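INFO batch 0412 | record 1 of 1 | parsing
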Amino acid sequence: MLKLKRAELQEQVEQEGKMPTYDVVVKKVEPQWVASVRGVVPAPPDQGALWAELGAYLGQRKVGSTGPCFTIYHDPEYKERDWDLEVCEPLGAPIPAMSVCGCMNCHRRNDGVYPPSGAVRHHQPSL
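INFO prediction complete | emitting tokens
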């Protein structure tokens, strides 16, 4: 057992500094209206309050999502704390924006960046 663990640790040390191998797929994305709430959270798993705020806003207006929700990560590089995130729900048409919730036509530019800029992760929030 100890030899196996030692071998695993040795392999991990040898892999450090090497680029991981990921399959990246770039897809064309049509413009999409989204309702969004942006805020700073300690770390990405702490974005539940942003989703709750967005859900309450959409629920009051009886507006449903038209596709998978996603998060835009606005920080230009990795940070340990205080992540600038924007949670987004796709909409069929624009709705009135308020101080709590914005509405924008989110589309990918030719450079692959979503406005205002950032990395995008699609997921289902856990409220």
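INFO post-check: DSSP finds two helices and five strands in the chain.
INFO record closed
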